[in-house]
Amino acid sequence: MKSLASVTGGEPRLGLWKALFPPVPGEQSIVRRRSKSADPSAVIAGVRTSSSGIGYRLLRVSRSSIGLVITTDGLVIRAPKWTPIYEIDAAIEARSEWIGSALERQRARLAQLSEFRDGGHTLFRGVKLKIDVREGLFEGVDLTERQCVFTSSDGRINRARLDAEIKRIAKDELPALAEEMAANAGLPLKKVSLSSARTLWGSCTIDGNVRLNYRLIQLPPTLMRHIIAHELAHLVEFNHSKRFWAIVEALDPMSKKNRRAVKNYAVLLEL
Questions:
Q1: For residue 215, which of 160, 178, 266 has the smallest C-alpha distance?
Q2: What pLDDT digit, counting tens, does each position of 251-269 carry?
């Protein structure tokens, strides 16, 4: 496995992708791709209940078939704009057993990672911390690798305040880490910003801008760095080709293992 030093030959700021893949005459070294984003044509059709009594959120989108997605908010149906409700009900009825099992598994995964109550727990840097709520004159959150202490006048947990503290820490650390990793590899990163997306850990645009989900700071550091490596690799390979994965592996030698492991934390995005 190639290390960054061996790939770049020890030359400072040498483009990692150039060292891995020397330019071929007549070939462009950077392949453009669209940035990852939600379907801009999606129309939220509201919350409904199927004829079989299963609640769901309906999105009208530009697609040719009915899609069923399980989130921590429940069942989401992505259906073509022309699909009648009775066809959606039939699709739900046909998959009702799967839907019930999937919802239960989703609830169980979320409960393992976060339980917002006094004596419950939350995840920070991959460590499951007990939530300790205390009464006091001032509102505050003390969040470290060792503890998660809420102080409030009414002795209740304030989830929004916890999220704000997680975002504050992420803002201090994630952009700096991404910039350091990009600089060490000689990758053309222009800007790093944070996102609160509920479907993506990160995204990369064609003009060199990377967005990182603030909840990355809740993951184990190795997985956090893996996702950052993934987005940085898109700065020069806007696809998921062998060349792309070779760059990810150069940035994260344990990328194959980490890629599988990060799937266990996807539910965090939907908090």
A1: 266
A2: 999 999 999 999 888 878 7
Separation in Å, CA 16 to CA 2, 42, 174, 176, 244:
11, 38, 21, 19, 11
Q: Write out pLDDT tens, residues 67-104.
A: 888 776 678 888 888 888 989 999 889 888 888 887 87
Mean pLDDT is lowest, of 67-71, 88-92, 163-167, 191-195, for 67-71
Burial of 66 (0-12, 13-18, 19+ CB in 10 A): middle
Give the CA radius of gyration of the chain: 22
Q: Which of 221, 205, 133 is nearest to 169 (CA)?
A: 221
What's the CA gap between 24 and 26, in Å, rounded? 6
Please give the C-alpha separations between residue 39 and each of 48, 54, 76, 130, 131, in angstroms, as whole numbers: 21, 25, 14, 38, 37
Give residue limits of the domains in the chain.
Answer: 4-30+164-270, 43-112, 114-157
| 191-194, Cβ contacts within 8 angstroms, sequence gap of 24 or more | 194/167, 194/170
Classify domain 4-30+164-270 by CATH number.
3.30.2010.10
- One-letter amino acid of 44: I
